[in-house]
Design a protein that fits this description.
Blueprint: E1 2-5, E2 20-23, H1 25-31
Antiparallel strand pairs: 1-2
């Protein structure tokens, strides 16, 4: 599991608790610099 940003830092997202989410390593990497999560992480 990894800590990820709901709004990517490159789009102005911050490190506040309301912009952080837990996701698996695979989904975090697949998501990259987008706002969409792969289907496997939608249930986390």
């Amino acid at each position: 599991m990894t800590l990820d940003h709901l709004m990517p830092i490159s789009y102005g997202g911050g490190h506040s608790n309301d912009n952080l989410v837990i996701s698996c390593f695979r989904c975090n990497n697949l998501r990259g610099n987008t706002f969409d999560y792969p289907d496997c992480c939608r249930i986390v």
